[in-house]
Automatic annotation (TrEMBL):
It comes from the Bacteria. InterPro entries: CarboxyPept-like_regulatory (IPR008969), DUF5686 (IPR043741). It holds the Pfam family CarbopepD_reg_2. This is DUF5686 family protein.
Length: 816
C-alpha cells in the first residue's frame, strides 16, 4: 500500500506595528520545533511542511514574540503578523564559555573587508530606484481634539483603518519616487548620479526640484564596510569596524542559507547603550566572509536628540568581479514627540539597485557633474511608474498620494504651510517676489537709533536666469536712508557660472563687516544692536563673476570700488613718507580680487536660483589675491593682499569629531588701517565659533598674520560613562584659537597720535607683538537639547585695556 504525504502551505507578511513596514529576516516557525522559515526583504514568507502544529510564532530581535492559531484543516492559508517593538538586551539571554565563537568569524570579516567592499572596484554603475515617505505618527487622543487637527480628522480616520490590528494610525505628509543611474570611479574617487525620472508630492512642497535631487540615491549611501556610517550628520560605528571589539558584543546564533549563500547569523549590540552603535543581526557568507544581509537598529538610549529609533536594513549581492554591492536598502527614522501633546514623525527610505555593471570606465570629465537631474525628469504618469518600479507599491502606499492631496488642500493647512515657509526661509512669497528677510526688519543701535528696513528678491517665477535684489531702510536716530540693489545673471547652473552687479550705501563698523558674518544669523542680528564703535558709512560698487572649471574647483573675480566715510574721529597721513603734515579723514579705493577655491567631492544642490553646498569630507583650500588700483575709478592706493585658508571637519573615531581652520595673510603695502586685516573679536554674550571670543572688537590690526582655530566635539565620550549624567545626554566640547601676526611700523605710524586728558600720546589701533594671541575654551553642549555654554580663558595680552581674562558665553543650536 502506498500513500502521498499531504503538503501544507502557509504564506503571510510580517510588519512593524508602529510603521506598517514589512520586516525582513524575521523567524517564523512552529514553536518548539525546527519547522520554520524567515521572511524576505519585504517581510513576506512562505512555509511548506508536511506537519502542522497548533500555532505559528514570529520572533525578531527587539520585538515582542507573537503566536497565532493555525487552521489544521486547511492545506493553504495566510497568516500575517504585526510585531510590537520591545526593549531586549541580548547579553541577558546568551552566555558563552571561553572565547566568544563569533570573534573568530569577525576577524575573518575584517580581514576580507577590502576584498568584499564595493569601493575596491575600479568602476561600477547601476540603475537605482528610490522611494521616500514621511508620516506623522503617535497622534494622541488629546491632540486629535485640537481645533486644527479636527480639520483633518476625516483623513486621519481613513488612515487609521489602514493601520492594521496592532498598528498605530499614521498621517502621510510626503512621498517621492525616483529613477537614476549611478556611476562610481575609484581613482580619483568620484561619483555621479543622473536622475532620469522623479515625482514628488507632499504637504508644503511647492516645486519639488530641490527635493527631487535629495530623493535620489546619493543621500541613501550606507556602506557597512566603512568604519563609520554617517546618518543625519552623526557618525555611527559599523558592527564590522576595524575596532569592532571596543564597541560591540557579538553572539553567534545560527547558520542558514540566505539568498543562496550558506551564512553565519551573528547578533550584535553596543557595549554601552549611549554609544552611537547598533543592535541587530547580520548574515555572513561562509565562503567569502562578505555581508549578505544586515538588520541594524539604533535605539533611543543612544546619545541622540529627537530620535526614537533609526533602523537600517540592507541586502547585498556579489558582482561578477567579486566585491558585493547593496541591492536593497531600507532605512527608517522615528522622530520623537517634542511634548506629550505633540505628534512624532516617521521617515522611511527605500532603495533598490539593479542592472549592475562593473569595471566599465568613463572619462574623468564624465564624473565631474555630481548630481544632475534631467530637465524633463518630473513625471506623474501612474502607468509609467507601474511599469518601471522595481517592486509594486503596497496598498497603503497607493493611497498615500490621494491622502496628501486631500490634506494639503485644506485651507487651514495651507495657512500653516505659508507661516512655516516664512519662518524657515525668512521671506514672504508674493508671486514672483519674495519679501524679506524679516530678521533684519528692525534693529536699534547707538548710531541709527531705531532702524527699519524692507527688502525683496525675485524668485524663479520671475526668471530662472535673472535675480534682482534690493532693500531700503531708515534710521530714526541718524536720519539717514540706507539702501542696496543687485542684479545677478545665471549663465549656467551646471557649472554655476554667474555675473552680478551690486551697489549699496549702508552703515558698517571697522572690524565687523556685515558680509563677514552674513552666514551666522545670530551674530548678524546681534551685531546690528547696541553700541557701535568705529562706525562708518560704506558706499560700495562691485561687479563679480564666478564659475566652476571642474566640480569642486571654483574661480571668482571681483572688481570693487568703495568709499569710506567715518562717523568717528578718524584720520591718516596721506603721504607715508611724510607723517607730520597732510592728513585726511576719508578715502576711496578701487581693487580687483582673484580667488580660487578647491573642495574635492563637494556636493551641491540647486534650489531654484541658488546653489546650496552640502560640504565635503576632504580639505577645502582657498587662496585669494587683491590688487589695489590707484587712480582707477577714484582709487587712492596701490596695494597687494594675499590670503590663504585651509579647513576641514574630521571624524576621529571614538574621540568624536574635530574641525580646523588654518589661515594666513600678507599685505606688503602702506595703507590706512581699514584696508588691513582687522581680526574678528566678539564682545557679545554669544559664542561664535569663527571669532576670537575674548578679543575686543578692533583690538588688533595686522598686515601679516597666521592663525589656527580648532573645535572638538567629544560627543558622549566622557559623559556617557558617568552614571546619572549620561541620562542628560550632555556632550563635552573644546576649542582653541591661536593668532600670530604683526603690523609694520609704516602702517602703524600712518595713524596720527591721539592725546588723553593727561597729555599721554597713543595710537588708536592695537597690534600683536612677539607672542601670539591665545584663548582656550571648554564647555558643554546639548543642555536642554539646544543650549551650549563655553568657558573661555584668554592667555595672552592680558594688560590691554578692557581685557577679560575669563568669559562664559552661550549659544543655541539644534543638533541630533
Amino acid at each position: 500500500m502506498s500513500y502521498a504525504q499531504t503538503s501544507y502551505v502557509i504564506t503571510g507578511k510580517v510588519t512593524d506595528s508602529e510603521t506598517g513596514e514589512g520586516m525582513p529576516f524575521v523567524a517564523v516557525a512552529f514553536k518548539g520545533t525546527t519547522i520554520g522559515t524567515t521572511t524576505d526583504f519585504n517581510g513576506n514568507y512562505k512555509l511548506v511542511t508536511h506537519t502542522l502544529q497548533d500555532s505559528l510564532t514570529a520572533t525578531a530581535i527587539s520585538y515582542t514574540e507573537k503566536s497565532k492559531l493555525v487552521n489544521r484543516k486547511a492545506t493553504t492559508q495566510a497568516i500575517d503578523f504585526q510585531l510590537v517593538p520591545a526593549s531586549i538586551s541580548l547579553n541577558e539571554i546568551k552566555i558563552y564559555a571561553g572565547e566568544n565563537p563569533a570573534y573568530a568569524i569577525l576577524r575573518k570579516i575584517v580581514r576580507n573587508k577590502e576584498k568584499n567592499d564595493k569601493r575596491s572596484l575600479e568602476y561600477f554603475e547601476y540603475e537605482s530606484y528610490n522611494k521616500i515617505e514621511v508620516d506623522v505618527d503617535n497622534i494622541s487622543e488629546k491632540l486629535k481634539k485640537r481645533k486644527a487637527i479636527k480639520k483633518i480628522q476625516q483623513v486621519i480616520d481613513s488612515v487609521e483603518v489602514l493601520a492594521g490590528e496592532d498598528g498605530k494610525p499614521i498621517l502621510p505628509l510626503f512621498i517621492s519616487e525616483s529613477f537614476s543611474n549611478v556611476y562610481y570611479r575609484k581613482s580619483p574617487e568620484k561619483k555621479r548620479e543622473h536622475i532620469l525620472k522623479t515625482r514628488v508630492t507632499g504637504v508644503g512642497i511647492q516645486d519639488g526640484t530641490l527635493i527631487s535631487q535629495m530623493a535620489g540615491s546619493s543621500f541613501q549611501e550606507y556602506n557597512f564596510y566603512r568604519n563609520w556610517l554617517n546618518i543625519l550628520n552623526k557618525d555611527f560605528v559599523s558592527p564590522i569596524a576595524d575596532g569592532w571589539k571596543l564597541y560591540y558584543e557579538y553572539f553567534l546564533v545560527d547558520s542558514a542559507e540566505v539568498n543562496g549563500h550558506y551564512s553565519y547569523r551573528i547578533d550584535f549590540e553596543p557595549k554601552r547603550p549611549q554609544d552611537l552603535a547598533f543592535t541587530g543581526t547580520m548574515w555572513v557568507d561562509k565562503a567569502t566572509f562578505a555581508l549578505v544581509q544586515v538588520d541594524a537598529t539604533m535605539n533611543k538610549t543612544a546619545n541622540l536628540n529627537f530620535i526614537e529609533k533609526i533602523k537600517l536594513q540592507q541586502e547585498l549581492a556579489p558582482t561578477e568581479a567579486g566585491p558585493w554591492l547593496p541591492v536593497k536598502t531600507r532605512v527608517l527614522i522615528d522622530i520623537a514627540e517634542i511634548t506629550n501633546q505633540s505628534a512624532g514623525m516617521l521617515a522611511k527610505f527605500y532603495t533598490s539597485n539593479e542592472r549592475v555593471v562593473v569595471n566599465q570606465p568613463h572619462s574623468t570629465k564624465f564624473y565631474d557633474v555630481g548630481i544632475e537631474m534631467e530637465p524633463t525628469a518630473q513625471i506623474k504618469d501612474e502607468a509609467f511608474w507601474d511599469e518601471h518600479r522595481h517592486e509594486p507599491l503596497t496598498e497603503s502606499e497607493k493611497n498615500v498620494y490621494a491622502m496628501i492631496d486631500s490634506i494639503k488642500n485644506i485651507p487651514l493647512i495651507r495657512s500653516y504651510i505659508e507661516i512655516a515657509n516664512i519662518v524657515v526661509n525668512g521671506y514672504k512669497k508674493a508671486g514672483p517676489i519674495d519679501i524679506g528677510p524679516y530678521i533684519l526688519a528692525y534693529s536699534y543701535n547707538t548710531v541709527e537709533g531705531s532702524y527699519a528696513r524692507l527688502g525683496f528678491k525675485t524668485n524663479i517665477d520671475f526668471s530662472d536666469k535673472w535675480v534682482l535684489k534690493g532693500y531700503g531702510g531708515y534710521g530714526f536716530g541718524d536720519h539717514r536712508f540706507k539702501y542696496g540693489a543687485e542684479i545677478q545673471r545665471i549663465f549656467s547652473k551646471k557649472h554655476w557660472t554667474t555675473l552680478s552687479v551690486r551697489h549699496s550705501y549702508d552703515l558698517e563698523r571697522v572690524g565687523l563687516l556685515s558680509q563677514d558674518v552674513w552666514d551666522n544669523t545670530l551674530f548678524l542680528v546681534s551685531s546690528r544692536f547696541g553700541t557701535f564703535r568705529r562706525p562708518f558709512m560704506l558706499r560700495n560698487n562691485q561687479i563679480a563673476f564666478q564659475t566652476d572649471f571642474v566640480r569642486g574647483f571654483t574661480q571668482k573675480i571681483k572688481l570693487r570700488q568703495w568709499q569710506f566715510d567715518p562717523l568717528y574721529n578718524f584720520t591718516y597721513y596721506t603721504n607715508p613718507t611724510d607723517t607730520q603734515l597732510a592728513t585726511d579723514n576719508n578715502f576711496q579705493s578701487t581693487e580687483i580680487t582673484f580667488e580660487s577655491r578647491f573642495a574635492q567631492n563637494e556636493q551641491f544642490l540647486i534650489n531654484d536660483n541658488t546653489r546650496i553646498s552640502l560640504g565635503t569630507t576632504k580639505p577645502v583650500f582657498t587662496i585669494s589675491y587683491t590688487l589695489g588700483l590707484k587712480g582707477i575709478l577714484g582709487g587712492g592706493f596701490n596695494y597687494h593682499k594675499i590670503a590663504l585658508n585651509l579647513s576641514q571637519s574630521i571624524n576621529v573615531g571614538s574621540l568624536g569629531r574635530a574641525s580646523y581652520s588654518i589661515s594666513a595673510g600678507y599685505i606688503p603695502s602702506t595703507v590706512p588701517y581699514p584696508i588691513l586685516q582687522s581680526h574678528q573679536g566678539n564682545q557679545t554674550f554669544f559664542y561664535i565659533s569663527n571669532a576670537y571670543n575674548l578679543m575686543n572688537f578692533f583690538e588688533f590690526v595686522s598686515d601679516r598674520y597666521a592663525s589656527v582655530q580648532l573645535q572638538h566635539n567629544f560627543e558622549g565620550l566622557l559623559f556617557n560613562r558617568i552614571p546619572l549624567i549620561r541620562k542628560l545626554k550632555w556632550r563635552l566640547v573644546a576649542n582653541a584659537n591661536v593668532l600670530y601676526g604683526g603690523l609694520s611700523d609704516k602702517n602703524y605710524n600712518l595713524v596720527p597720535l591721539e592725546y588723553d586728558d593727561q597729555g599721554n600720546a597713543s595710537r588708536p589701533i592695537g597690534r600683536l607683538g612677539d607672542i601670539p594671541y591665545i584663548e582656550l575654551g571648554y564647555g558643554i553642549e546639548n543642555i536642554f537639547r539646544c543650549m551650549r555654554i563655553d568657558a573661555i580663558h584668554r592667555l595672552t595680552y592680558l594688560n590691554n585695556s578692557g581685557t577679560n581674562r575669563f568669559g562664559v558665553k552661550i549659544s543655541f543650536q539644534f543638533k541630533l
